[in-house]
From TrEMBL:
Protein name per UniProt: GGDEF domain-containing protein
Domain HAMP: 171-223
UniProt xrefs under InterPro entries: Cyclic-di-GMP_PDE-like, EAL_dom, EAL_sf, GGDEF_dom, HAMP_dom, LapD_MoxY_N, LapD_MoxY_peri_C, Nucleotide_cyclase
Assigned keywords, A-Z: Membrane, Transmembrane, Transmembrane helix
Taxonomic lineage: Bacteria, Pseudomonadati, Pseudomonadota, Gammaproteobacteria, Oceanospirillales
Length: 641
C-alpha cells in the first residue's frame, strides 16, 4: 500500500472512531433526556388520573372511568392504563400501542426501559383502588431515530469533506516525495538527466541533496569509464595520422562483419601518389593529405549506414562497404576515387584528371573467412593496377554466387508461404551455470537443403522485408507458446525497428499477451540502437513493464554507442568473441569495456565462444556469460513445429 493510501486510511479510521464517539455521546445524552422527561410526565399523569378517577370509583361509574382512561391514552404517550378498584369484577385495561419508525436493530442498539408508575385512588381512611400506567416508547424512539439520521448524515458529509481536504493536502505535501521517486525511477531506466529540483520540506531536503549527489557521481563514473574505454580503444585500434582504424581494428571488424548476417563488400584502396608527395613535399604534407583522406572516408555512408575504414600501410586503406546494388556501388566507387584524386593532386589548371587511386574489391559470399577475403581483395587490387583499371571486382567463386538476389527473394517468400521455416534455440549461459535465455534462430528449408540465417538475412535486409520475417516469428510464437516453457530471446531486424508503425504494432502485440511477453527478451543490434534509439527505447519500456528484458546484440562495433547505452540502459549486451580473444588487444581495454556495461547494471555476454580456453579468458576479463559452440543450438521439440 502506498504512503498516500496509508495516510488517507489512517485519517479515515481516526475520523470513523471520532464520529462513532460523537454519535454515541449525542444519542446517549438525548436518550437520557427523553427518559427523564418521560419519567416526570408519567408520574404527573398518573397522579392526575388518581385524583380525577375518585368520583367515578366512589359511584362505581365504570363507563365514565373507561371514557376518561381512553381520552387520556389517546392524547398522550401512554401505552397501557389499568384500573383496579373495589366493586370492579376485572381490572379495567385500556391499551394504545403506537407504531415507531425506528428499525429493530436501532431499538436493540439504543434500548429504552419500559417505564411504569402506579398510584392509589384515595377514598378517605382507605384507598378505593389503584391506577397503573405504562409509558409508550414510540415517540422517544422516533425522536432518537430522527436525531440519529441527521447526525449520521452530517457526520458522513463531514468525514467526506475532511477526507477530501486531507487527500488534497497529503497529495500536495507528498508531491516532492513523488517527484523524488519518479526521478529515481527515471535515473534507473534512462540514466542521469540533471539534478532534481530542491524542496522546501525540511525532512526531504537532505534526501534530495543526497540523491542529486549520488546520481551525479554515478553519471560521472560512467562518463569517465566510457572515456577510458574510448581512449584505450583509440590507443589499440586507431591510426594516429588518418584517425581511422589500424590493422587491429580491421581484423576485429572483419571478423564481426563475417559473423553477422550482413551483406556488403571488402575493398582495398591504394594511393601511390602519397609516396610522391612524401618525396617531393615531406612527411608533414603527406600526413596532412592522409588526414584529409581519413576525414573524407569517415564521412561516407550508404543508405545512412557509415562505411568502416582502416589504414593498412603508408599508401593502402581497407574499407567495408554496406550492401548496395551493383549500379549504386559503381556510382559510389567513381565518386570516392574522384574525390580522393582531387585530395592528393588538386590542380585546377590541368584539363585531364589524373587517376592516382586504385581499388580492388571482393563481394561477401557465404563461407568466406577473413584471410580469404583479404587475399581476394589484394589480388583484385593487383589486377586493377596491372591492367590500369580504376577498380576491379573479384568474380564470385562459390555456388551461392550463382543465385541472384531475386532468386533468394523467391526462396524466402516460398519458405514463408509454405510454412517451411523452422526454429532452433541456442542457450546463453552465465558463469555460474545458470541459463539467461535461449536465443531463437530461424532456418529455411528448400527441398533437402537448409539455409541458415546468415544466408538469407542479408537478402531480407536488401529488399527491406526483415519485418516480414519478424511477423512470421511472432505468429509462430503465438501458436506454440503453450509448448515452450523456456525463456526465449528474439533478435529483431533493422527493418522492423526502423518503422514507427511496426514498433507500435509489436508493442500492442506484447500488451495483448502479457504472460508470453514476460518470458521474452527483445534483442536489437547496435546499429538499430544508434539509428532508431527512440523506437528501441519505447519498445524496451513496454518489455520492462511486462516483465521481459531488453538486450543489445553485436555491441561495441562502434564505441560511439557507449553514451547511448547509458541512456537506454539495457539488461545485457552481447559482444563477439573476436573482440576478446585477440592477443593484440590490451586486457585493460576489455576489462574497462565490461566495467562500463556493469556501471549501468548490464550483463556482458560473449558470443561465438568456441573453446573452453576462450570461455576462461572472457570470464577472466570480466564478462558475465557466454554463447557459442560450447552450448550449441538444439532443435525445438518436434511437437511445436
Amino acid at each position: 500500500m502506498s504512503l498516500f493510501l496509508r495516510l488517507v486510511t489512517g485519517v479515515a479510521g481516526l475520523l470513523l472512531l471520532f464520529s462513532i464517539g460523537i454519535f454515541a455521546i449525542n444519542v446517549h445524552q438525548t436518550r437520557q433526556s427523553l427518559l427523564d422527561s418521560q419519567r416526570m410526565e408519567t408520574a404527573n399523569l398518573t397522579q392526575g388520573l388518581s385524583l380525577a378517577l375518585v368520583p367515578f370509583v366512589e359511584t362505581q361509574d365504570w363507563t365514565s372511568a373507561r371514557t376518561l382512561l381512553q381520552a387520556t391514552s389517546d392524547g398522550s404517550f401512554v401505552s397501557m392504563l389499568k384500573l383496579e378498584a373495589m366493586g370492579l369484577e376485572a381490572p379495567l385495561v385500556v391499551q394504545n400501542p403506537g407504531v415507531t419508525r425506528a428499525p429493530g436493530w436501532f431499538q436493540s442498539l439504543v434500548s429504552l426501559p419500559q417505564l411504569s408508575t402506579q398510584r392509589e385512588i384515595s377514598g378517605g381512611w382507605s384507598p378505593l383502588g389503584t391506577i397503573t400506567l405504562e409509558a409508550d416508547n414510540t415517540l422517544p424512539y422516533n425522536q432518537l431515530w430522527s436525531l440519529g439520521l441527521r447526525l449520521l448524515l452530517w457526520l458522513v458529509i463531514g468525514m467526506a469533506l475532511t477526507l477530501a481536504l486531507c487527500a488534497l493536502g497529503f497529495r500536495r505535501l507528498l508531491t516532492p516525495l513523488h517527484r523524488l521517486s519518479d526521478y529515481i525511477k527515471t535515473l534507473q531506466i534512462e540514466g542521469y538527466a540533471g539534478p532534481i529540483e530542491s524542496t522546501r520540506i525540511r525532512e526531504l531536503k537532505g534526501i534530495t541533496q543526497a540523491v542529486n549527489q549520488l546520481s551525479a557521481r554515478l553519471n560521472d563514473q560512467f562518463v569517465a569509464q566510457t572515456a577510458q574505454v574510448i581512449r584505450l580503444q583509440r590507443m589499440a585500434e586507431q591510426d594516429a595520422v588518418s584517425q581511422l582504424g589500424n590493422r587491429a581494428y580491421l581484423t576485429r571488424i572483419l571478423d564481426e562483419w563475417l559473423a553477422a548476417p550482413e551483406g556488403g563488400a571488402l575493398m582495398i584502396l591504394r594511393i601511390d601518389h602519397l609516396s610522391e608527395i612524401y618525396r617531393r613535399d615531406g612527411f608533414e604534407v603527406r600526413d596532412n593529405t592522409i588526414r584529409a583522406i581519413g576525414d573524407y572516408l569517415s564521412g561516407i555512408s550508404v543508405y545512412e549506414t557509415p562505411i568502416q575504414a582502416a589504414r593498412l600501410s603508408a599508401e593502402e586503406f581497407a574499407l567495408i562497404l554496406p550492401d548496395d546494388s551493383d549500379a549504386g556501388r559503381d556510382e559510389l566507387l567513381l565518386t570516392m576515387l574522384d574525390r580522393i584524386d582531387d585530395i592528393v593532386d588538386a590542380n585546377p589548371l590541368n584539363d585531364e584528371r589524373p587517376h592516382h587511386a586504385r581499388a580492388g574489391m571482393v563481394l561477401r559470399e557465404p563461407g568466406l573467412q577473413r584471410v580469404a577475403m583479404l587475399s581476394k581483395a589484394d589480388n583484385a587490387l593487383r589486377e586493377a593496377v596491372e591492367n590500369d583499371l580504376r577498380w576491379y571486382i573479384a568474380p564470385r567463386e562459390s555456388r551461392h554466387g550463382e543465385r541472384s538476389r531475386g532468386d533468394w527473394r523467391m526462396v524466402i517468400d516460398n519458405a514463408l508461404s509454405r510454412h517451411e521455416a523452422f526454429f532452433v534455440a541456442q542457450p546463453v549461459l552465465l558463469n555460474d551455470g545458470q541459463e539467461l535465455h535461449q536465443e531463437l534462430f530461424m532456418r529455411l528449408r528448400e527441398g533437402e537443403e537448409v539455409h541458415l540465417a546468415s544466408s538469407f538475412l542479408p537478402i531480407a535486409r536488401h529488399f527491406g522485408i526483415g519485418a516480414q520475417l519478424d511477423h512470421h516469428v511472432l505468429d509462430w510464437l503465438d501458436r506454440h507458446a503453450e509448448h515452450l516453457s523456456m525463456r526465449l530471446a528474439l533478435n529483431l531486424t533493422f527493418d522492423l525497428l526502423a518503422s514507427h508503425e511496426e514498433v507500435d504494432a509489436l508493442i500492442a502485440w506484447l500488451g495483448e499477451r502479457p504472460a508470453l511477453a514476460a518470458r521474452l527478451d527483445m534483442e536489437v543490434t547496435e546499429e538499430s540502437m544508434l539509428r532508431h534509439g527512440d523506437n528501441v527505447q519505447r519498445l524496451f519500456r513496454k518489455v520492462w513493464a511486462l516483465g521481459g528484458r531488453g538486450g543489445i546484440d553485436r555491441f561495441a562495433r562502434d564505441l560511439n554507442s557507449l553514451p547511448v547505452l547509458g541512456k537506454l540502459r539495457p539488461d545485457y549486451v552481447k559482444i563477439d568473441q573476436t573482440f576478446f580473444v585477440r592477443d593484440d588487444v590490451d586486457n585493460e581495454f576489455l576489462h574497462s569495456l565490461c566495467m562500463a556495461a556493469h556501471q549501468i547494471e548490464a550483463l556482458v555476454i560473449v558470443t561465438r565462444v568456441e573453446s573452453e580456453a576462450q570461455r576462461q579468458r572472457v570470464t577472466a576479463i570480466g564478462a558475465d556469460g557466454y554463447q557459442g559452440y560450447l552450448a550449441p543450438a538444439v532443435a525445438l521439440n518436434p511437437g511445436v513445429h
